[in-house]
Automatic annotation (TrEMBL), chain A:
Alphabetical UniProt keywords: Periplasm, Signal
SUPFAM superfamilies: Periplasmic binding protein-like II
Compartments, as annotated in UniProt: Periplasm
A Pfam family that the UniProt record links to this protein: SBP_bac_1
Endpoints of the signal sequence: 1-19
Protein name as catalogued: Sugar ABC transporter substrate-binding protein
Family: Belongs to the bacterial solute-binding protein 1 family.
Record's keyword annotation contains rRNA processing: no
Gene Ontology CC, one term: periplasmic space
InterPro entries given in the database record: Bact_solute-bd_prot1, SBP
From TrEMBL, chain B:
Keyword entries, A-Z: Cell membrane, Membrane, Transmembrane, Transmembrane helix, Transport
Name the UniProt record assigns to this protein: Carbohydrate ABC transporter permease
Membrane topology, as annotated: Multi-pass membrane protein
Biological-process GO terms, alphabetical: transmembrane transport
Top-level taxonomy: Bacteria, Pseudomonadati, Pseudomonadota, Alphaproteobacteria, Hyphomicrobiales
Places the protein is found: Cell membrane
Domain ABC transmembrane type-1, first and last residues per copy: 70-260
Main localization category: membrane
InterPro entries: BP-dep_ABC_trans_perm, MetI-like, MetI-like_sf
Similarity comment: Belongs to the binding-protein-dependent transport system permease family.
Species the sequence originates in: Mesorhizobium atlanticum
Pfam families reported for this sequence: BPD_transp_1 (PF00528)
Annotated transmembrane regions: 12-33, 69-94, 106-129, 141-161, 182-207, 238-259
Any one of the GO CC terms: plasma membrane
């Protein structure tokens, strides 16, 4: 009996010693299919690194953003790895809240990261976050309806063509809307779309001196075109439609075209969820011949906060999760179609991936067509394609989004919405000390 | 004739009550139904008949491990309630039996703290928690939940205690009972139904609290609210799993509420009619 007690005691003591030795890192992440898959595959990491234990905190996008912002701004040190987007990286890196990722390992191949994405995640040439999955936006359209309308979608359409096609495809008696676009207010909802769209109309949020530009003709053209297009060919109640609502409409065959995130391609082409899976074609986001397209750029990325005590283990994990090896691991377990897209050039050169994801080339072309460091036709003082990478943008973007959503709903005129947006932006920028 | 009208009234009233009850309960019911659907079924639109799969439940358990969160929820809600009662019973006693000119103001002031949006104090609280090493700790969160529910607990107990005739306490004092004896042996037993319903309501409030419990925890102290939110996704990808997680999270409190509904209703309507 005594011997048994002694053995048990020794065993638990050694277990404790091991637990104390194992370093545990806490990872805050967003809830999407790719991230959940990563959590399931972490055995591969812990086998190779038995001394590192992983704790996951999975949260919905908005809650996650608020949580990690609170933590990093107060140096709370709750997380060792954070999932953040291209919006946060430049702002946080400038505040010295993030550690530069310089210990990713020799075989990591940083140069393989798609240049447009790497550009959005770097400050002064240093990479501050490693992309886990990247996306742009493009046109998804119904090949059958396009054919019926007697048109052929070019690979790189113009806004005029989109308007013409939408007019012809709209068949409200049969529940078909020519085009579905985001209308729900929010800096990440309608303003992601409208800001990207405005780039192709030659508009910009601010001039070189941070003066708001909503009183300029380019914004008027953008918003007027959007409101007219949606009134003529958009679904009913479009001002409350976000990504989910439009996805459901498109999957049910109620949209001729949908301009939204490239990641939606895998949903609309999935025969289990989409009634139009075999009829979807893809094209680049439209332009107006001004040299910029209306597509955005986003990457959910893994970053290491400056407050962490476990920087080495955290970087080891970031390196694993964003490596080529990880892409191969997902492919071997779940097939190439489920590999997180939009991060590495080598993935798009892989013939097996091209076969599994028919939208691969168009996704890559879309990502390459976005340039977060030079997003607009005229020069701007900010970084970001569908956002302005300054801390004030979340609040301001949502306010402007509400004004534009109201214009779409017919509650105010385009001119009124723009005037109010100009006033709101001027007030915010004055308060922030950008302008006097 | 009069009797017929009464019966008819009763039937209508009952039917109306059922309709209202069903309307209120429907979102929960639909969540439970959705939890037995596959992910594809869940996004396919309104449908009251699920295929009856347990897939979501097993995946939810596999992915997150329900019991760790459940244990934290029980600990936090019960712990914070007991703590709140320890503070609130003497406070309510003094306000009910030895009121001063400012008692009403104090009560209002306590309640006014509930009127402020929680997010307004997020940063100060977060910094206090950080500096005292209470982030992601059960103790810190128990105290936090106690504090945010304290005004309601004091108010409820105060209303109860006011119903108890002060003469009984005076009689106890005449018999030589000390202050503590008076509270513990005279007041508390008389107020048991009131204290019980306050406790129940407070446990429910603490169980459902989703602002602080998500923001002040990461892994160790995270209760069921954090468990649910880990399945919520803006892309609507995991509706069935989210429903399963929600069902698992609300089931214990729903069952508890069901068994104690008499006390709950009594507690909530106590003092309404004199």
């Amino acid at each position: 009996m005594k011997l048994r007690t002694l053995t048990l005691g020794l065993l638990s003591a050694s277990a404790l010693a091991f637990a104390a030795h194992a370093e545990s890192i806490t990872i805050a992440t967003v809830n999407n299919g790719d991230m959940v898959r990563m959590q399931k595959l972490t055995d591969d990491f812990t086998k190779a690194n038995p001394d590192i234990q992983l704790n996951w905190v999975t949260l919905e996008e908005n809650v996650l953003r608020e949580r990690v912002t609170t933590d990093i701004a107060t140096k709370g040190g709750q997380y060792d790895v954070m999932t953040i987007g291209t919006y946060e990286v430049p702002i946080w890196a400038k505040q010295s809240w993030l550690l530069p990722l310089d210990k990713l390992g020799d075989d990591y191949d940083v140069k393989d990261i798609i240049p447009a994405i790497a550009g959005g995640l770097s400050v002064d040439g240093k990479l501050y976050a490693a992309p886990f999955y990247g996306e742009s936006s493009f046109v998804m359209y119904r090949k059958d309806l396009m054919e019926k309308a007697g048109l052929k979608m070019p690979d790189a359409p113009t806004w005029d063509f989109i308007k013409q096609a939408a007019d012809k495809m709209t068949d409200r008696a049969n529940g078909v809307n020519g085009v579905c676009l985001r209308g729900k207010a929010g800096w990440g909802e309608n303003m992601a779309f409208l800001t990207a769209m405005s780039n192709s109309f030659g508009a910009r949020w601010f001039d070189e001196n941070w003066k708001p530009q909503f009183d300029q003709p380019e914004w008027k053209k953008t918003l007027q075109f959007y409101v007219d297009l949606m009134k003529a060919d958009g679904p009913e109640g479009a001002s409350s439609n976000g990504f989910n609502e439009n996805l459901a409409l498109f999957q049910q065959g109620k949209c001729g075209m949908w301009i939204d995130a490239t990641v939606a391609a895998s949903f609309v082409s999935d025969p289990k969820a989409s009634q139009v899976a075999d009829k979807v074609g893809y094209a680049l986001a439209p332009d107006n011949g001004l040299g910029k397209r209306g597509n955005w750029l986003w990457a959910w990325s893994l970053a290491v906060p400056a407050g962490t005590q476990k920087a080495d283990a955290a970087q080891k994990f970031v390196s694993w999760a964003t490596s080529k090896h990880y892409l191969e691991l997902v492919a071997s377990k779940e097939g190439w179609a489920n590999v997180p897209p939009g991060t590495r050039s080598s993935l798009y050169a892989n013939p097996e991936y091209q076969k599994a994801a028919p939208f691969a080339k168009m996704t890559l072309d879309s990502i390459n067509a976005a340039d977060p460091t030079h997003p607009t036709v005229k020069p701007v003082p900010y970084v970001g394609v569908q956002f302005v990478a300054i801390p004030e943008f979340q609040g301001l973007g949502t306010t402007v989004g509400q004004l534009f959503s109201a214009a779409l709903a017919g509650q105010s005129s385009v001119d009124d919405a723009l005037k109010q947006a100009q006033d709101a932006a001027t007030a915010t920028m004055t308060e922030g000390g950008y302008i006097k | 004739m009069a009797r017929a009208v009464t019966t008819q009234h009763k039937t209508i009233a009952t039917a109306a009550a059922w309709v209202v009850a069903l309307l209120i309960f429907f979102p929960i019911l639909y969540t439970i139904i959705t939890s037995f659907k596959s992910e594809q079924e869940a996004i396919q639109g309104f449908n009251l008949i699920p295929s009856g799969t347990f897939e979501s439940y097993s995946e939810v358990q596999q992915q997150s491990g329900y019991f760790k969160f459940f244990f934290n929820s029980v600990l936090l809600s019960v712990g914070s309630t007991i703590l709140a009662l320890i503070v609130a019973i003497p406070a309510a006693w003094s306000m009910a039996f030895s009121p001063t000119k400012r008692t009403k103001d104090i009560l209002m002031w306590m309640l006014s703290t509930k009127m402020m949006p929680a997010v307004a104090v997020l940063f100060p609280i977060y910094l206090i928690f950080r500096d005292s090493g209470l982030l992601d700790s059960r103790i810190g969160l128990t105290v936090m939940l106690m504090l945010i529910n304290l005004p309601i607990v004091v108010w409820m107990l105060y209303t109860y205690f006011r119903e108890i005739p002060g003469e009984i306490l005076e009689a106890a004092r005449m018999d030589g009972a000390s202050l503590w004896n008076e509270i513990i042996y005279v007041l508390t037993p008389m107020a048991v139904p009131g204290i019980a319903s306050t406790m129940l309501l407070n446990i429910i409030l603490a169980w459902n609290e989703a602002f602080w419990t998500i923001r002040l925890t990461t892994t160790n102290a995270a209760p069921l609210t954090a468990f649910i939110s880990s399945f919520s996704s803006p892309q609507g990808l995991f509706w069935a799993k989210l429903s399963a997680a929600s069902t698992l999270a609300i089931a214990p409190i729903l069952i508890m509420g069901w068994f104690s509904q008499k006390q709950l209703v009594r507690g909530l309507t106590f003092g309404a009619v004199k």
